[in-house]
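Record passed on underneath.
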Amino acid sequence: MQQSFQAILFDLGGVLIDIDYHATENAFEKLGVADFKERYTQFAQNALFDRFECGEISEQHFVNLLLPYTQTGTSPNQVVAAWNAMIGAFPQRKIALLNQLKNQQIPLFLLSNTNALHIVEVSRALKKVSDVALGTYFEQVFLSHEIGKRKPHPETFLWTCNQMGFAPADVLFIDDSPQHIAGAQAAGLQTYFYENETAFYALFS
């Protein structure tokens, strides 16, 4: 890997942990929400999901706002399970890569649009393949619901780089959503658009 950067800023879902948006879409359709994909996708979402990802509403409030769209008799736990259905596995090879990069003394950081429900499920998935917490792999972890900011806003990337202590031009940002890549580029970061595993691993070989 020819290194023109001083630090790597990783996305989480779809880059380090497997994500299946259709699983959540299908789960909500089974609960009677026929138009869920019009409310939430990888590329766009309505204000409810933005507010939840920025930590502006609680898990209970989020679930209570979704319940009226579901069929009669749906429980809060069923809504949570449907929402978490998208969270997949942590590939062992991704964990090995993080360890490899740490051993090479490359500062690693994480910036994720996530929420209080998903991050619990992410931690469960990680425990199946690692005996250390997510934060162990990174210098700092920036989660949208904790920092009150989200991608793809350029100011989110500028704020994050400032917290990291690196100029944007010295940071390589890796994400699988084109709108997030565009936001990072507008803020002056180097970017890598994650489209498939083979090319991703080749980046570090």
Summary: The two ends are 6 Å apart (CA to CA). The chain has two domains: 7-18+89-203, 21-84. The beta strands are 7-10, 108-112, 140-143, 171-175, 190-193. The chain has a mean pLDDT of 94.
